[in-house]
Design a protein that fits this description.
Elements (H helix, E strand, L loop, with lengths): L14 H22 L4 H29 L4 H20 L6 H31 L8
Helix pairs in contact: 1-2, 1-4, 2-3, 2-4, 3-4
Length: about 140
């Protein structure tokens, strides 16, 4: 598993998106720390629920920016967001029914998805935005 930190290659040049990406990475590190330290399931569920809410807000903002920018792959990007949101909702909605180890495994797969999404998928639209395709007002 990659342990992604903030770096220039995932910098967007859009202040709000950068803040949100940094917050996402911070929450991922916190969740990863809880898993590595065998935190109680209640604590993990609480932070995972916070993470899920923030992810949904971030995706909505990102999709709005991509739509305004006329990014050609915005629908594909949204489909990826929808798939991971569904998985997050399944995990947070059924956490009490699963063993902690199963929940941890699911959360780790989500971390991996986010890290790859930031590095690969978001990089495409970030280049598009950096090239001046849109004025985001930031």
């Amino acid at each position: 598993m990659v342990n992604l930190n903030w770096a220039e290659e995932i910098s967007s040049g859009v202040a709000q998106i950068e803040r949100q990406h940094q917050n996402l990475l911070s929450l991922i590190r916190d969740l990863r720390g809880m898993i590595n330290n065998s935190a109680r399931s209640g604590e993990l569920i609480s932070l995972l629920t916070e993470f899920s809410r923030f992810v949904e807000e971030h995706f909505e903002y990102e999709e709005q920016i991509l739509g305004l920018a006329g990014y050609i792959k915005s629908e594909q990007h949204k489909s990826e967001h929808d798939a991971i949101l569904q998985k997050l909702n399944e995990i947070t909605g059924s956490t009490m029914e699963h063993k902690l180890s199963d929940m941890q495994e699911s959360v780790i797969s989500i971390f991996n998805w986010f890290e790859q999404h930031l590095i690969k998928e978001d990089a495409g639209y970030l280049r598009y935005l950096k090239d001046g395709a849109t004025d985001t007002g930031q």
